[in-house]
């Protein structure tokens, strides 16, 4: 490479030009070039690094500060690529010079140099912090403001770049920052405080205009110290999430007290630090809102709540400052505060509204300030009860209306959003309120209609004008009188415009759903066919919104919707009912259900293609969840219409026909379950038809000529019908189902097991004792019968099951030591779900079985606990929290399988209810990490014919451990020592295929969640990634080996792409070298390019959420 040759040629000359110090201008240019070379090609100059260091170090004592500054920059770039020996020489030199402290001028330079090295190579300087920090702390106490500034800046870089190593010193750093945050020796704030107190006492809000110049002093450098302290606190708050409670005790009051700071730049940094504190609090909301956490007293959220009055008191004066920057900071603060604590400002709205109006009315306000003020007002309006604002509507409406008319489109757009929310406030439809909205309607309507009619305006303004007018008609339509029809016709025009049609559809949906029953007859005749045409457009968001609009229109305006309109819509529906897009299908089916209820006559025309598509969808293995529920509702609504040729038996034949026609079996088992659920839904809607159909299904199961497919469907249908209808009047039923347990088909046996359990739910006294008796008396059928019992426990009501709990519990415990793992798993699930019925009695019993001498019993009870944990609150939660630690002690069990199921249970808790295990992490994590290690004693060789095959009995438990680690990243990140965590991720990168795949995913998550920690370990992470990407499969390997290696490479490349999103990752010499290797290898380059393309297209898709 020519660059490499040029760099090497000129390096020697540059070093001599720098060292000679003859001509300062030449020296400065040489230092600039050297710094640039080290930044771009530092890795190529490794052989020159010792000589570069030798020529640079003396320049740190140069008489010229410009030379020192450029030397520091060059050294910062050098440490990114130099070897360890050069790095050690540099650090030792700086430490020695700092210890000598020859002159204050050079000490300042050395502190700056250490801060620069920390910023560029924090992962390397960390091990020296124990020596560096005491020196920096000592220099903070010297009466030299410039030195103090540099010391605090050094602390900031340590906090950001060496989070682990700086941890023991964080309290010291915070104390220093808090001390110097208020360091202002040339200014006395006492008078101002007295004025503020006087103002509060009088209740008069005078327009306080702070002065930035009155006390300014050109020689006063103290503001730089305060700014450095604010920035350092920002760094501490942003990187030490686990210290949030401490921050709210110490840092929050100190920052709030400094909102009165006289220097604008310092004040902006104080606000920014508090914003960081609020942002750190928001992600933690889910676990901080946990009821258990709230019971414990102070959490960051409760502490913030208690400080809101103090924050508002400090802010409301600043909201009338001359400084635009200060007021913007206030609005950003209030916005974030309300996002973190919705409703927090309820008591303070009267104090804050004048400040917002001040900025909206201020003629000297910049556009950005008005936009921030409007944005803040919008968030406050959205997050508080309407009644809070009613006393202030008269003051708010004029400035907001004026902003809607502003010539700058961004202000107009934001003001329309506020207007829309104001409309909800002045007349909330979900509350009966005495507030009189009439004085404000004409102004709000007039400013919005003007924007709605304008053709030559910005796209965003057009859309927001439509949304705003939609809200006005929805909430105030009955007060618009003659203005309403004309406005609806404008909507009709917007509906015909490709750019505005989606927003207009949403606005019409809002209007159609209004409880005011707005008269839409003037536009329905033209609007519905237009909406119908949208269903064939290739725009998913438009289809979904249109289906929602049509549904609400048909539901609320059935008298005005004509058969011709409905026909136009029905003609477009068949292509929408397809497994390719289940959500669109669900919306289309819900529309048909609405039609069946309010326009039953129109369904006579669905017998062709629409019904054909619906029946095809029932047979799809993808039909489940919301779409399946919609389908069941539709069939019940359809059969209730009594439409000719769409009666109960007609629909039953359509659903079950293919199975009975002896044609090829349906391809997927799920299809039979869906058909059975539809059959049961029809039968519930037509109870008179039930006995005959149930009798026919029983005969189908008995009939020796029935195919397995017919038996499967009949059994599942019996189960679904029996779940809701008592079938105990069918004498043959028990025998027929038990005989099916002996079928040669595993699917039929499974269906019989499900059917018995589901039928039992319909009549527990009749069937549950029978099932228990069969479990005890039929050991060969035990596994299937236990599955029936599981279905009963999962589906029956708590009240219905309570009388049988003791009998079921006793029976289950007899089988929890079964040698067959599949049976034990079913027993464990039954035990867990049974425990939920009477947790106070049964949970202590489960805990008692941890002392069992049988490893099978211990694994069963630990697995049972997994089934007591769900992601929503349950009565068992407080009891479980008290004893889950006992169950997790099985992570130390001598039995490998018990430890594995303990990890699976831990993972379930970490995923579904992290509050159960957060406080146990300190004791659990060492055992968890212990299970990530490869154990040679668990690896054995098995001979398979002429081949020897290696079996790793520890692989499953390692996978379970790594899965737990992945879950903890999402649920308990703040409780993890990320560097210890990364140690085990590094090991996982060199493990088995399955574990590598998991650790690649973890690396991608970590790159987003903890970029600075990952950056410190980057060099150690790159090597195993490179090894995976460059591994070659033996030429004679089977196809699966090639596929696995290809998938490994792709996953490793995704991890590399994620690592490269970290700022400065590319500056790592090893990463840079690996990138070059990827670029020069066509196969790797192609994979990498495709991953980056996929990533950017995924980002584009996620943006299309409309």
TrEMBL record:
Classification via InterPro entries: ARM-like (IPR011989), ARM-type_fold (IPR016024), CAND1/CAND2 (IPR039852), TATA-bd_TIP120 (IPR013932)
Region (Disordered): 191-219
TATA-binding protein interacting (TIP20) domain ranges (all copies): 916-1078
One GO CC term on file: nucleus
PANTHER family: TIP120 (PTHR12696)
Family: Belongs to the CAND family.
Protein name stated in the entry: TATA-binding protein interacting (TIP20) domain-containing protein
